[in-house]
From TrEMBL:
Keywords: ATP-binding, Kinase, Nucleotide-binding, Transferase. Its EC number is 2.7.4.8. GO terms for cellular component: cytosol. Pfam families: Guanylate_kin. This is guanylate kinase.
Length: 204
């Protein structure tokens, strides 16, 4: 059972949609209001990544044991690496009274919907698959085969993201500033309830 607190905010969208950029901007502008839930992964750290900041880097066997014990809210496997959000990671943010922000994929969203966390769900949509491919190629971090696989996953994620009822809002990221304003406005409309929940929790 995860400790009560403000409703978590989930940002979902295919790799290259810009959700991570929007997330960083939100956390930078409101450090006292939002806290990032750090995910676990079995992949190796990339240059510049720090354990406990970007991810909790762990061994596959250790993570499998933790999943077996029920320590994780959601997990997914991509390119042979496991990713997941632990109950503890969410609790650590919520304990501070901040809104816990998560950056997870579609499979993670499906699993979170099955919990009692009642998250606010935001899907960040790229302007087109072609633009998404251009952005991913500009990164130059993957070979052709991995890129094609990522685009296949993106198509499935976009399909799920566009289905009515799967998300509270779909934000088209064809302009970063415009998308950020839309995200802010959506949160402001719903954060009133979050702030009230947080006050009630602290008073009880």
């Amino acid at each position: 059972m995860v400790q009560k607190g403000p409703r978590p905010l989930v940002l979902c969208g295919p790799s290259g949609s810009g959700k991570s950029t929007l997330l960083k901007r939100l956390l930078k502008d409101f450090p006292d209001r939002y806290g990032f839930s750090v995910s676990h992964t079995t992949r190796k750290p990339r240059p510049g990544e720090k354990d406990g900041v970007h991810y909790y880097f762990t061994e596959k066997e250790t993570m499998l044991q933790a999943i077996e014990k029920g320590d994780f809210i959601e997990t997914a496997t991509f390119s042979g690496n496991m990713y997941g959000t632990s109950k503890r990671a969410i609790e650590e943010v919520r304990r501070t009274g901040k809104v816990c922000v998560l950056d997870i994929d579609v499979e993670g969203v499906k699993q979170m919907k099955a919990t009692d966390l009642n998250p606010l769900l935001v899907f960040v949509m790229p302007p087109s698959i072609e633009e998404l491919e251009r952005r991913l190629r500009t990164r130059n971090t993957e070979n052709e085969e991995a890129l094609k696989k990522r685009l296949e996953v993106a198509r499935r994620e976009i399909e799920y993201g566009q289905e009515p009822g799967n998300f509270h809002i779909i934000i088209m990221n064809d302009n970063l500033d415009k998308a950020y304003v839309e995200l802010r406005e959506f949160i402001e409309e719903n954060v009133k309830d979050i702030a009230q929940d947080a006050n009630n929790t602290s008073e009880n």
